[in-house]
Amino acid sequence: MAEGAVKYEEEFILSSRGSKLFTCRWLPRHRKAKALVFLCHGYGMECGVFMKGTGIKLAESGYAVFGIDYEGHGRSEGRRCYIKSFPDLVNDSISFFKSVREQEEYKHLPRFLYGESMGGAVALLVHRKEPRDWNGAVLLAPMCKIAEESKVHPLLQGFLIKICSAFPTWKIVPTKDIIELAFKDPRKRREIRQNPFIYQDRPRLKTAVEILLLTWDLEQRLDEVTLPFLVLHGEADKVTDPSVSKALFNSALSFDKDMKLYPGMWHGLTTGEPDDNVQLVYGDIIEWLDKRTNTTFVEGNAGLPTQSSVETKIPKQHIEMDIPCLQYC
C-alpha cells in the first residue's frame, strides 16, 4: 500500500480500578477492514512503539489492529512493570477488546488475538474466559513455560515465593539480560534499549511470582485450548521454551491448529531478527489470517466449533519447519 494508507490513533481509557490505560490502533485508511486483530504485548514491552511494525504490516494487509498497554507497562499508569494480579491484566484486556468488538462498524467482523511472549499467555487466558468469542489466535513464542536458560534456581524460586507477600514490589529477582537473549539483530537490539517505554530493570518480586505461577498453570492446562491458532517459535529461543509450543500444538483440542518452527531464530521473531527473517514470519502470519478471514467466517457467528464438534471432528494438524535466510543466524 502507498505511504499514508494506514491511519494511526491513540486513546487513554480507564480500567475498572480507575487506572489510565494507553490504547492504540492501526486502521486501513482507504478500505474497510476485513477483520480485527487485538495485540497482547510481552513482559516489560508496549504496543505503540515496540509493536508499531506489526500494526502497520497487518493494517496494510487490510486488518484493523488494536493494542493496549497493561497497567504498569508502556504509557499506562501504575508502578512500572508491577503485576499485582494477572487476572486484572487479563480483565483489562478483555474489557478493551470487547468495547471495540461491540462497535457497530466492527461487530460483524472476524476477530483474532495476537500475542507475543507473555502476551501469548495473556491471549490464551482471554480465550479461556471467552471461549466462544474468537475466530483464532496468532501466538509468537508464547510464554507457556520459561526456558531453562532464563529461570532462577528452583531453590531460589521457593524462597522468592515465600517472601513475596512481604516485599512484592522489590526489584530483587536475579535474571539474565532478556533483551540480549531475545533480539538477534544488534541494530534492532540497540533501538529496543533506547525505547523509553520498555522496562529494563530487574523484575519485581510479585511480578516474577505471578509469571511463574501463570506458566505452571498454562503448562498443565494446554488441553483446554479449543480455538483455531497458529503458534510460531524460533528454535534457538532462550527466553520461552519451544518445546512447550510443541506441547501446546499436540495437547490443544483445537481442530484447526498450525505450528511454524524456525531453525536458528531467536525469541523476537518480528522485532529482533534480520529483515529477511522478519518478512518470512509476517508472510506466514498474514497467509494464515487471510485463509481464516476469507473462508471460515459466517456473518454474525464467531465461527468457533461447538463442543460436540470438538469431540467428534478429527483435528486438522499442520506443522512446518521453515528454513529462513540463515546467513545472519
UniProtKB/TrEMBL annotation:
Residues 32-274 form the Serine aminopeptidase S33 domain. Pfam families: Hydrolase_4. SUPFAM superfamilies: alpha/beta-Hydrolases. InterPro entries: AB_hydrolase_1, AB_hydrolase_fold, Hydrolase_4, MAG_DAG_Lipase. This is Serine aminopeptidase S33 domain-containing protein. It comes from Ceratopteris richardii.
